[in-house]
Amino acid sequence: MPPRPPMNVQSFPRPPLLEKTSRHLQVKWRGQIIADTKEAYWVLETYHPPTYYLPPSSLKVPLSTTKRSTFCEWKGWATYYSIKAPDSEETVKDRIWSYESPTSGFTPIKSYLSFYAGPWECFVDGEEVKPQPGDFYGGWVTEELTGLIKGSAETRHL
After folding, report:
1. Which of 12, 53, 61, 139 lies in the 20 to 30 Å Cα band around 106?
2. What are the pLDDT digits (tens) for 20-57?
3. 120 pLDDT above the threshold of 90
C-alpha cells in the first residue's frame, strides 16, 4: 500500500467533523481479532488524531456497560463498557465507549464503538497505531499525522 499523504491535525476543524471512512480498522487482543471493519466513522478535531467509531456488528466479543459516563460538548454523554479477554478471566473496564443518544450532528455514530489504543493493539490499514498522548482522549496516532497533538500535560491548554 502506498504511503498516505500527510494530515496536519492543526488544520482539522473545530467544531469537529464526522465522516464515514473506508479505512480498514482492526482491534486485536491476545492474538485474536476482537473488532474488524471497513464501515467506520472518524471524528477529526483540531489538535487531535482521528477518533474512530466502529459499528457494533464489527465486534466479535460481548461487552457489558459500566457505571462510567463522560460528557463531550460536541457529541453528548458517553457510555463505557467492560470486556472480558478471550481465553482468560481478565476484564478491562472503561476503555471502550459509545454515544447512545448523541447530539444531532453526531447521530450517525449512535451505538458505534470507540476503543482507546490499549491494552489491545489497534490497526488502521495494517499500521499499528500509537495512543493519543495522555489517558483522557482516545485518538489513534498514525504515521501520516503531523502537527501538535493534544493530550500530554504540555498541550492541555490547546
Report:
1. 61
2. 999 999 999 999 999 999 999 999 999 999 999 999 99
3. yes
SS3 105: helix
Largest Cα–Cα distance in the chain?
Answer: 43
First to last CA, the chain: 34
What's the rounded Cα separation, in Å, for the pair 109 and 99? 7
* Cell numbers standing for residue 89: 478471566
Q: How far apart are CA 54 and CA 29, in angstroms?
A: 16
The average confidence (pLDDT) of the chain is 95
Give percent above pLDDT 90 in the chain.
86
The three-state secondary structure class of 70 is strand
- Give per-residue burial for 40-54: e unless 16+ CB within 10 Å, then b: bbbbbbbbbbbbbbb
CA-closest candidate to residue 63, choices 79, 80, 44, 82: 82
At residue 130, the 3 state secondary structure works out as: strand
Question: Residue 10 corresponds to which cell in the numbers above?
Answer: 492543526
pLDDT at residue 1, rounded to an integer? 67
